[in-house]
Structure formats: structure tokens, C-alpha cells
Write a structure and sequence with these properties.
This protein has 787 residues and is of the alpha+beta class. It starts with 12 loop residues before the first helix and ends with a strand. A hairpin with an 8-residue loop joins strand 21 and strand 22. The strands form 5 sheets. A 7-stranded antiparallel β-sheet has the order 3-2-1-7-6-5-4, with helices on both faces. A 5-stranded antiparallel β-sheet has the order 9-8-12-11-10, with helices on both faces. It is built from 23 helices and 27 strands. Helix 13 packs parallel to helix 19. The longest helix has 38 residues.
């Protein structure tokens, strides 16, 4: 244990003053007699000694807060008992409010009697083995319920003032604090106020209910660790620990409490804490700790050693308080003070160089506003222009961005790869659509090489015309009608910038000022060039998307067959291309009049959404046709197994779903068709009866093509009456984000079932796709009616 001279100071002056004021009655001391003043000084001295003993140090004052300093203003009632004299020597603010202004020091039982403390049966604590006496004798109290009844107080004024409605239930905990060889032998007692509780016949149940009420009675955390065990683990925490940190007791008992530390915990504060624990002395510090969910909080922590009768260190008691709000306020106050000091220095500097400072500030503000406006415009332009894949809409959005922020009106010219004008857009701050339309039509049709837009397109450089005098306009705008429309629109200066993306000039952006008071600065030119570059990139992305989508869509449609005329059946097919991106899937359908007189029906979907998937779909369809045309075994299950082996052997496609149907004609008039179905991981087909009822053919399914070519595939055989319609489709018809596929299948059934009873294949296809399609996947659909 450290010697007295090595122990640091313990209680700051504020802690002493608070304790003395509470013990002596606050402002009443100022008007007391000399004897009362002497008694107050004696009590203050006792509190000073108590503070030193609680901290485990000598009586000197210092810069570190002590346990009474921590507990002075907390909302839980706390008293300190001198075990040698069995007297209460300290009561914090909450304890004074709870028990009344009892003069200290006073015998522990006398303090309880003056406060009006009784056991649950109403007997005074002084006449029973109450918690105050137990703690005064050096034994800890883990929790005991008592009743506060001011009407039983030994203080006459307190008892007379009681109106009978002030009785309260309290939960008492207490434990010794001092070392065995300390001059002062002290103990800490904590009173938690509980809500009223209806008494029961079972005393144990009543006490348990009180314990549960005590759980939520305080936000002050008490912890106990055992330094005799390796790594000084926690052996007990009160329920407030869980509420503050989020950790349950069984998660932390047996662990060192360093798990509360995190990346921003101050290493210096941790070093001081470890040093105090090594030296077996009380320490108070404020740490940035972290809850179980990772959120930080400021923890004011006071740790005191506890020794047994032989002087052996048996535990450390920690009192923790969440002081996050206080730290925040203090930091805000410090920040405000620092800001005030900085403002004073800036004001003094400004007074010495007032005019220069104002000029610099105005220039800086103007530059900042200009830079902020430019950044805001670029951010808006990026988000606005990339949000559409329609070129006309993109040009309109670009014109809206330019007017009126950059110019009074704008004229956009878009050219093709040969330099011919193919599209224009314009906007005026005052509307003027008729004049704009007239100017755009005539000027774009006769765009001379001398015009600023044509020069920017040809040279890929910006062109600035400061003075659009009548003579200059006559040189730049050759068509008289366009020149007249320009004059009605108004224009005193113009700036054109090229729109270049991926080394290709897509067009020009022409900005026009209508008033001589507004001109184009160098910053305006740079801003327009930046905007034009972003717009050009968005335009080129639209061009590339449209080009890729057109190629992929054309490829896929070219691979889909035209349905043949097959005797005895009616058929219709429908294909919807994805439109939200350039992706095109590998969806397909097919209808075959087979050599043996049967009819083959197929629908499939190659995994993937690109041109490669569309090409793989064509290969897969070719493999299927080759297998079924002269198959040794026409059973659909055998056909799909054969297709699976060829697909994996020839590496036609990675994975694909498919359904193959072989419909055998009736053996006689009026007899049903015999339909054989095999399914390789594809959505189930629908069968619509002649009366309009719809059946989901989910009885047969199997692995996708490309997973395992050795898999045996089942075949479903159905007798289908004439007038029935078989409907096969791909998953783009039923899938939606966040919706179950089964729900989509049932919605499709409802759409098909509600079609007129006499609806043919074409009408049923239209009914099937009448729902809100997702448009993020292709849809292939075929309907076949058996005659």
C-alpha cells in the first residue's frame, strides 16, 4: 500500500464546501450563533477527514475529484457513516432532500429516526437490526427495503409538517470503504426511491417485487471487481450497468472491464487509472467508453479499494455515472469561449486594417459563393443528366440548368458523326417559345461556318463574342428570318462551348446574354466548359446505350422464330424487351410441327442479361431443334436429358431453364390430345380449360440445364380436351423486387382466368402481359390452343 506522503490530494474545495453546506444546513449557517458556527466547522472537518478516508489518502486537498465529489449532485441519496462512532458524517443533496436538514454529524440510528426511517412493518430502524446499524458495524448490505415515514420523525417540526401523503419506499445498499489501517473507518450507504407497491401475503414475493423496482430506480452504476483473481475481473454489477452499457450481467461477470474501452479512449487517463489500481488508492476520472452497440458515452468513474479485517485487498468498488450531456455542455462552452476569443482577436485585427480586411472579406465571400454555386451546379448537373436515357429529355434538362443561372437564353446544337445538325433544344428565361422555335429551325438549317456554334464544333474550342452588334449579327446569322427572330429574343453577347466526349464532338452549347449589363467572365467560360463536358459524357452514354440496346434487341428478335402454321392448333407468341437498361436476356420460345405428326412447344431462358446471353439462347434453341427432330426417344424427359448433355459437352451455355412439351394428336375425332411435359427449373406452365378455368402445371420440375447431365428427368403426361390452351412463359412476367414468385404466378392466373371464355391465344397473351411489368427482365410468352 502507498505511504501517506505518496498519496495525492483528494477532495477539491468545491467538494468540501458542498459537503459542509449540506451537513450544516446551507444558508442557515450565515445567521447562526458562534457555537453553531463552531459546530459547523467541526462537521466540515469531519467531512474532510471522511473524504480523505473514502479516497484512501491523507487530508490534503488537491486537483482530483473524490467519491463524495462525484456523488454530491447525483439524483440518488447517499450518506457516509463513520464506523468508529456509528455516526452519519456526510449526506449529499438528494439525501438532504429525502431525509430533511438533519444536523451532522449524528448517530446513524438517530439520523434514521430523525428522517423517519422504519422497516416495512413500521417499526423504527433504531429498534431493529436495520441497514444503517448493520453497515455501521462494518457489514455490507446488498439490498434491503425500508419505509420513509416523516410522521414518525423524532424531529417535531418534520413530524408535524407531515400530511400523511409523503411516505415512500426506499431500497438500501451499503458497503465499507476504508482500509483496515486507515485513521477513519467509513462506509457508504445508498438509498433508492421506489414506486408504491401493493403488498402481498407472500413476503418473499413482495421483496422480489421491490428488488425489481430498485432495478430501475437509478442510473448510477455500481460495480465490484476481485483483484485476487487473474486480471481483476468483475464479480458484480448492478442493473443500472446494463441500462447504461447495454451489457447484461452474465456477459461481463468474469471479465476485466476494459471491454468498455474503444479507439478514442484517452490512453493517459487509462494509465492513471491503472496506476491507481496498482497502488491500491481511490481514483476518479472521466473516460470515453463504448456501449455494447458501439455508441460512445462519457463515463465519470470513481474506484475505491476495499480491505478486509486483516488489511487484505479484497475488492474494488466502482461508481460510474453517464456524464455525456455534461461533457457536451462543457465542450460547447469551451468551444464558444474559444470562438469568442478568436472573434475578439479578429475584431482587433480588423480594426487595425479595417478597409483592407473588408475588401479581402468581400472578395473571399464572392469567391466562396461563386465556388459554392459552381459546385452546386455541377452536382445538380451530374445527378440530373445521368438520370435519363432519352436524348431529347437530356437536352431539355441541360437547357433548364443553363437558364437563367448562366445566361438569359440558350441554344443547343447536336450533330451526327458527319457534322450535320440532327437535333436542337433551346430555352429563354421569359418563355418566348415561338421566337425560339423559329430561330432554332431556321438557324440550325442554315448553320454557316462563321457562326460561333459551328466554329466550336469544328475546332472543339470555346468562342466568345463580346459585342453582338447588328454588323456582327449579319455575319454570324445568315438567314434573315433567323436573324430577325434573334433580334426579338435579344442578345448583346454570346458564348459557345463544344460538347466533347471520348474524343468526339457531339455538338455545341450556345449561351446568350440579352442585357449589356451581363457579360461573360473567365469564370463563366470555365463553368460553361465544365458543364458542357459533363453533358457531353451523359449524351455519349445515351448514344452508346441506345446503340447497344438496339443491337442486342435486334439480335434477340432475329433469333426468335415466326410461329409456323400447324394444322389442328392455334398459336400466338409475345416478346417484351427489357427497357430499363441495355441488358437483353436469353429468353426464347419455339413451336415445331414434328416429323411424327406431334407438336413441339418450348420456352426457355439462358442465365444472363447481355448480348452473349442472347447468342447462347440461339445456340441452345438450335441444339433443342436438332435433338427433337429425329429423336430416338421422343419422351420430353429424355429430350431434355440429351439437350443437357450436349449443352455441357459443347459448352453452349452456362445455365438455362427450359420446358419442353410434346403434344400428340387425338387418335379419333373428339378424343383428347395427349400432352407430355418435362421441366428443367422453369416456371410452371398454365393450362386453361375450354370453360376458362386455369390450372398451374407444377407437378413436374427438375434441375436447370447445365447443372448435372446425369440427372434423370421426369415426364408429366396429361389428356387435354380440345379447346384447351397451354401457356408457357419466362420469369420476367411474374418476378418483381420484394415479391414472392408464387404470388406473381397466382396474379398471372387471375389475369388469364378473367379473359373472355372464347378468348384465343392472341387475346390470352395480351391478358397475360396486361399487368405492370418490371421491365428489368425480358419476357417470352407462347400460347397454344388445341383444336
Amino acid at each position: 500500500m502507498p505511504s501517506e506522503r505518496d498519496r495525492p490530494d483528494t477532495l477539491p474545495p468545491r467538494g468540501l464546501e458542498s459537503a459542509a453546506e449540506l451537513a450544516g444546513g446551507g444558508g442557515a449557517v450565515a445567521t447562526a450563533t458562534r457555537d453553531a458556527d463552531h459546530g459547523l466547522g467541526q462537521q466540515a472537518g469531519i467531512v474532510t477527514a471522511a473524504s480523505a478516508a473514502v479516497s484512501g489518502h491523507g487530508g490534503r486537498t488537491g486537483a482530483h475529484a473524490t467519491l463524495p465529489g462525484v456523488l454530491a449532485d447525483v439524483p440518488v441519496a447517499v450518506v457516509v457513516i463513520d464506523q468508529k462512532s456509528s455516526s452519519v458524517i456526510y449526506a449529499n443533496t438528494a439525501a438532504v432532500e429525502l431525509a430533511g436538514n438533519v444536523r451532522l454529524p449524528v448517530d446513524a440510528d438517530a439520523w434514521g429516526a430523525a428522517a423517519g426511517l422504519t422497516d416495512l412493518s413500521g417499526r423504527p430502524l433504531a429498534s431493529s437490526s436495520g441497514p444503517l446499524s448493520t453497515v455501521a458495524r462494518g457489514r455490507p448490505i446488498t439490498g434491503e427495503a425500508v419505509r420513509l415515514s416523516p410522521g414518525t420523525s423524532t424531529e417535531r417540526l418534520r413530524a408535524d409538517a407531515d400530511d400523511g401523503d409523503t411516505d415512500q419506499l426506499l431500497w438500501v445498499t451499503g458497503f465499507p470503504l476504508s482500509q483496515v489501517d486507515s485513521t477513519e473507518q467509513l462506509a457508504l450507504v445508498v438509498f433508492l426511491q421506489l414506486d408504491p407497491l401493493e403488498e402481498t401475503a407472500d413476503p418473499e414475493a413482495y421483496l422480489q417485487a421491490l428488488r425489481e423496482r430498485a432495478v430501475i430506480a437509478t442510473d448510477i452504476t455500481f460495480t465490484i471487481t476481485d483483484p485476487r483473481e487473474p486480471d481483476n475481473p468483475l464479480v458484480w454489477v448492478n442493473p443500472s450497468f446494463t441500462r447504461i452499457t447495454g451489457y447484461e450481467a452474465d456477459e461481463v461477470v468474469g471479465r476485466n472491464c476494459r471491454f468498455l474501452q474503444g479507439p478514442a479512449t484517452d490512453p493517459a487517463a487509462l494509465a492513471d487509472l491503472r496506476s491507481a489500481l496498482d497502488e491500491r488508492r481511490t481514483v476518479t476520472t472521466t473516460l470515453l467508453n463504448y456501449r455494447k452497440d458501439g455508441s460512445p458515452f462519457w463515463n465519470q468513474l470513481s474506484v475505491s479499494p476495499v480491505f478486509d479485517g486483516a488489511g487484505t485487498l479484497v475488492s474494488f468498488v466502482g461508481v460510474q455515472t453517464d456524464v455525456t450531456e455534461r461533457v457536451r455542455v462543457e465542450r460547447e462552452r469551451e468551444s464558444a469561449f474559444a470562438a469568442e476569443q478568436a472573434a475578439r482577436r479578429e475584431a482587433e485585427l480588423a480594426r487595425s486594417i479595417a478597409e483592407q480586411a473588408r475588401s479581402d472579406a468581400e472578395r473571399a465571400q464572392s469567391d466562396a459563393e461563386r465556388a459554392q454555386g459552381r459546385l452546386a451546379l455541377m452536382a445538380e448537373a451530374t445527378s440530373t443528366l445521368i438520370a435519363t436515357l432519352d436524348m431529347t429529355e437530356l437536352l431539355d434538362r441541360l437547357a433548364t440548368l443553363c437558364v437563367p443561372r448562366l445566361a438569359d437564353w440558350v441554344f443547343l446544337t447536336l450533330v451526327d458523326q458527319y457534322g450535320e445538325v440532327r437535333e436542337t433544344a433551346s430555352r429563354h428565361r421569359d418563355g418566348r417559345q415561338a421566337e425560339l422555335q423559329e430561330f432554332s429551325t431556321l438557324h440550325a438549317r442554315h448553320l454557316p461556318p462563321s457562326s460561333p456554334s459551328r466554329r466550336s464544333i469544328a475546332t472543339s474550342r470555346s468562342v466568345l463574342v463580346d459585342d453582338l452588334s447588328p454588323e456582327v449579327r449579319e455575319q454570324l446569322i445568315l438567314h434573315p428570318g433567323a436573324r430577325e427572330a434573334f433580334e426579338r429574343l435579344g442578345g448583346t453577347s454570346a458564348l459557345t462551348v463544344p460538347m466533347v466526349a471520348r474524343r468526339r464532338t457531339l455538338g455545341a452549347l450556345a449561351l446568350v446574354m440579352s442585357s449589356p449589363d451581363r457579360t461573360f467572365s473567365r469564370d463563366d467560360v470555365e463553368l460553361a466548359e465544365d458543364l458542357a463536358a459533363r453533358a457531353a459524357l451523359a449524351m455519349d452514354n445515351v448514344r452508346l446505350y441506345q446503340q447497344e440496346h438496339t443491337v442486342a434487341d435486334t439480335l434477340q428478335r432475329s433469333l426468335l422464330p415466326e410461329l409456323p402454321e400447324v394444322a389442328g392448333i392455334e398459336s400466338a407468341a409475345h416478346y417484351v424487351s427489357a427497357s430499363s437498361a441495355a441488358d437483353v436476356g436469353g429468353d426464347f420460345y419455339d413451336l415445331l410441327d414434328l416429323p411424327d405428326g406431334s407438336v413441339g412447344i418450348a420456352v426457355g431462358d439462358v442465365v444472363g442479361h447481355d448480348v452473349a446471353a442472347a447468342a447462347a439462347m440461339g445456340h441452345l434453341r438450335g441444339v433443342l431443334r436438332a435433338v427433337v427432330w429425329e429423336a430416338d426417344d421422343a419422351d420430353p424427359g429424355a429430350v431434355l436429358a440429351r439437350v443437357d448433355r450436349l449443352v455441357q459437352g459443347l459448352r453452349v451455355a452456362s445455365l438455362a431453364t427450359m420446358v419442353w412439351v410434346r403434344a400428340v394428336r387425338p387418335v379419333r375425332t373428339g378424343a383428347p390430345w395427349r400432352v407430355h411435359i418435362a421441366n428443367a427449373g422453369h416456371p410452371p406452365m398454365l393450362l386453361r380449360s375450354p370453360g376458362g378455368a386455369v390450372r398451374i402445371l407444377g407437378e413436374v420440375t427438375g434441375l436447370l440445364v447445365g447443372v448435372d447431365h446425369s440427372t434423370h428427368r421426369e415426364t408429366l403426361v396429361l389428356d387435354v380436351p380440345s379447346g384447351s390452351t397451354l401457356i408457357a412463359y419466362t420469369d420476367g412476367l411474374i418476378e418483381r423486387p420484394g415479391r414472392d414468385m408464387d404470388e406473381g404466378i397466382h396474379e398471372l392466373c387471375e389475369r388469364v382466368a378473367t379473359a373472355p371464355v372464347d378468348a384465343g391465344p392472341r387475346e390470352l397473351c395480351d391478358a397475360a402481359v396486361s399487368g405492370a411489368l418490371d421491365h428489368r427482365d425480358d419476357v417470352a410468352l407462347i400460347a397454344v390452343r388445341f383444336g
